[in-house]
Design a protein that fits this description.
The protein has four domains: 2-163, Rossmann fold, CATH 3.40.50; 186-335, Rossmann fold (3-Layer(aba) Sandwich), CATH 3.40.50.300; 370-562, Gcn5-related N-acetyltransferase (GNAT) (Aminopeptidase, 3-Layer(aba) Sandwich), CATH 3.40.630; 608-710, tRNA(Met) cytidine acetyltransferase, tail domain (Four Helix Bundle (Hemerythrin (Met), subunit A)). It has 27 helices and 22 strands. Strand 13 (306-307) and strand 14 (310-311) form a beta hairpin. Helix 22 (608-618) packs across helix 23 (624-639), helix 22 packs across helix 26 and helix 23 packs across helix 26 (674-693). By secondary structure, it is an alpha/beta fold.
């Protein structure tokens, strides 16, 4: 009887062109028995099983293999939730299903599921924390939404009763091939034409292609290339946050796939290209996209709006103003119609609701009176019950960060070591900060971390203080780390972020934390914000992230006496190490960022001889090599003085004197005429600051020497 009803369910899904969610709940063994009834003897790669003891007839995949299935199509996905429910895996695997497909979740009895420890939460558990102590909010809400959705199909594994509701959608019409041949819809064919037009149209007019999952975005990129001559395809370069993101593009590009290069590598090597395709652009930070715009005159940026990979909406909000400034002729193309399933797909609707893939901040009216904004600690159990507040708050996180994932929602609701403060305006969240408590590790474990022999899960800030900053007792201190901070776009630059951090700081001090810190991909803008909030950089990652190209920075402020000692030691070591690292390990660090970091370091003031050497080079014609130690010392001093440089003027001195770049390379980088041109520009950059800050006696000495030389030359002329 059940087999026949399941057949009817699948036929109904095929008729409507929809995907359906089937929930089989009960004891694990009984759930597996019913799942076996869904498997035809033929099986094949189009049927996936995520979980232990996969039966014959399906492809068994491990959690680490999930991302390799993005962009591929399946007809059946079984996820055994007795082994845990990872929201990222749920969203990713659901996106592989084509029309008529089933997503099958094997779960414990629904009433008991949220109360059972979930192995998927292991990824969020820090060392020393019990899995059973993790929260239950995500599963409580998930079960509530499952039970409230009439189009979720339920099979009780004990009673064998199947409850499901047929789709009310009209039968799906058989799609006709478009004029483009390989394209599935007219809209996709138009997207292909728009992509190809970038190659042949005016320069500096990029295309931004955006779509939800299942709209054929990556396929359109590949089909556009497949329609080009082979020689043209060889001159196309593709980049993305990871190689996995372009698998679909490569499959549709034909027998002459384009070259792939990660963003950081692409910017480093800058290979020649007639066209650059940037897939999942929302996963690449804006500074790198801006540099790509400068390097390549013909670019297509494509991104998913709501999906497993992260959000494209916040990306668009931040990227469009950049395009308006740098490429005002840019064009936007949106793929609306789903291709792998029909409109009104029940599974897509459920995932959007349950994983908040389309969450957005609340709508604000007019300008804010900062006095009307209140900041308070959030009760997350109450947040689980307040759907409106949850959607708006998560929408803030989505818009503020390019890579917010469904797992971030689970961590927000369930990570018990996290403290959340929210800024509210008329009941609408306009800011949020997430803080996690770390450290307080046992002395033996802390020493093992300091010695480089142990790296327990979590405790990112505490471990960095010990292992990277060299503070031996750093992992023993109780510290609080700011994981995320987000402010509504309409309330930025009015002090909301600082108020949130003050509240987080006061609460952390009350909990006994010695320090408050954070770690992020550093830019000069972010560095300025955190400095204004009283935090200091104490560590800079030596290798940039492969996707973002940004170096991570650790910033810290003390909250008590022990914290002050920790901060003082960390700062001392950072200030001592950074100049040497810039000469060797960080030679390719952006010079503007290097200057910003050096501006915070303690530097002994130059002596009179140092000023004389530096002035002799910059204001006269002393040799660079003989003055180099003094020039380095004076430059570091000038970087700390307000107005000594006006921004980019410091880049050449930093590159040459502190990062040790050669004259030929600098001539090419700064567009100067060889060795002499670099030295002349170096003198011109240093001269204003030296004139402004050198002791008066130094300039008088230099002027006297210059006058003496001139008088001697005049006497020589008179003798002749």
């Amino acid at each position: 009887m059940i087999a026949g009803e399941l057949t009817d369910l699948r036929l109904d899904a095929c008729r409507a062109g929809h995907r359906r969610l089937l929930l089989i709940h009960g004891p694990a063994s009984r759930c597996r028995e019913h799942a076996l009834g869904l498997l035809a003897p033929s099986g094949g790669d189009a049927r996936l099983w995520l979980g232990p003891e996969a039966p014959a007839g399906v492809t068994s995949i491990k959690p680490r293999e999930v991302s390799s299935w993005l962009g591929r199509e399946t007809e059946l996905v079984v996820m055994d939730c007795h082994a845990g429910l990872d929201p990222d895996h749920l969203a990713a695997l659901a996106g592989t299903l084509r029309a008529g497909g089933l997503l099958v979740l094997l779960t414990p009895p629904l009433d008991n599921w949220p109360t059972q420890p979930d192995p998927a939460m292991e990824r969020f558990r820090m060392a020393g924390q019990r899995l059973a102590a993790m929260g239950q909010g995500f599963l409580q809400r998930f079960v509530r939404l499952l039970q409230a959705d009439p189009l979720v199909c339920h099979l009780d594994a004990v009673s064998g009763q199947l409850a499901w509701q047929p789709s009310s959608a009209p039968p799906l019409a058989t799609p006709r091939p478009s004029a483009a041949g390989s394209c599935r819809t007219k809209e996709q064919a138009e997207a292909v034409a728009a992509i190809q037009h970038v190659l042949h149209g005016h320069r500096r007019r990029p295309l931004v292609l955006i779509a939800d999952r299942g709209r054929g975005k990556s396929a359109a990129l590949g089909l556009a290339l497949a329609g080009l001559p082979a020689e043209t395809r060889r001159r196309v370069v593709v980049t993305a946050p990871g190689r996995w993101a372009v698998d679909s593009l490569m499959r549709h590009a034909g027998d002459c796939p384009p070259r792939f290069a990660p963003p950081a590598e692409l910017l480093r090597d800058q290979p020649a290209a007639d066209l650059l395709l940037v897939d999942e652009a929302a996963g690449i930070p804006l500074p790198l996209l801006e540099r790509l715009l400068h390097c390549y005159p013909r670019i297509v940026f494509a991104t998913t709006v709501h999906g497993y990979e992260g959000t494209g909406r916040g990306f668009v909000l931040r990227f469009e103003p950049l395009l308006d400034r740098l490429a005002p002729g840019w064009r936007r193309f949106t793929l609306e119609a789903p291709i792998r399933w029909a409109a009104g797909d029940p599974l897509e609707g459920f995932l959007f609701r349950s994983l908040l893939l389309n969450a957005s901040p609340g709508v604000l009216s007019g300008n804010s009176d900062s006095a009307s904004i209140t900041v308070r600690r959030l009760d997350r159990q109450a947040l689980v019950a307040d759907e409106s507040l949850l959607q708006r708050l998560f929408g803030l996180l989505v818009d503020a960060h390019y890579r917010t994932r469904p797992s971030d929602l689970r961590q927000l609701l369930d990570a018990q070591d996290m403290v959340v403060h929210v800024a509210l305006e008329g009941g609408i969240p306009v800011g949020v900060v997430l803080v996690v408590d770390e450290g307080s590790l046992e002395p033996a474990l802390a020493d093992a971390i300091w010695l480089g022999r142990r790296r327990p899960r979590g405790h990112l800030l505490a471990q960095s203080l010990s292992a990277h900053c060299g503070v031996r007792h750093g992992a023993r201190l109780p510290v609080s780390r700011v994981m995320r901070i987000a402010v509504h776009a309409g309330r930025r630059h009015c002090g909301t972020g600082r108020r949130l951090l003050r509240a987080a700081q006061d609460a952390a001090r009350a909990r006994g934390s010695a320090c408050l810190g954070t770690s992020f991909g550093v830019t000069t803008e972010l560095l300025d914000f955190w400095r204004a909030c009283g935090l200091h950089p104490v560590r800079l990652g030596l290798q940039p992230d492969a996707a973002s190209g940004a170096h991570s920075v650790v910033m810290l402020r003390s909250l008590d006496g022990a914290g002050r000692e920790c901060l003082a030691l960390a700062l001392q070591r950072f200030h001592a190490a950074l100049p040497a690292q810039l000469q060797c390990l960080l030679r390719n660090l952006d010079p503007t960022l290097a200057a910003a970091l050096l501006a915070d370091t303690d530097t002994p003031p130059p002596g009179e001889d140092d000023w004389l050497d530096a002035a002799g080079f910059a204001l006269a014609e002393r040799d660079e090599a003989g003055c180099l130690p003094a020039l380095q010392l004076v430059l570091r001093y000038l970087l700390r003085q307000q107005g000594a440089f006006d921004g980019a003027d410091a880049n050449l001195p930093v590159r040459r004197l502190l990062q040790g770049h050669g004259l030929a390379a600098l001539a090419a980088e700064f567009g100067l005429s060889g060795r002499r041109g670099v030295l002349e520009a170096l003198r011109a950059a240093l001269a204003p600051g030296i004139r402004q800050h050198a002791p008066a006696g130094v300039l008088e000495t230099l002027q006297a020497a210059d006058s003496t030389q001139q008088a001697a030359e005049d006497r020589l002329v008179d003798r002749r």
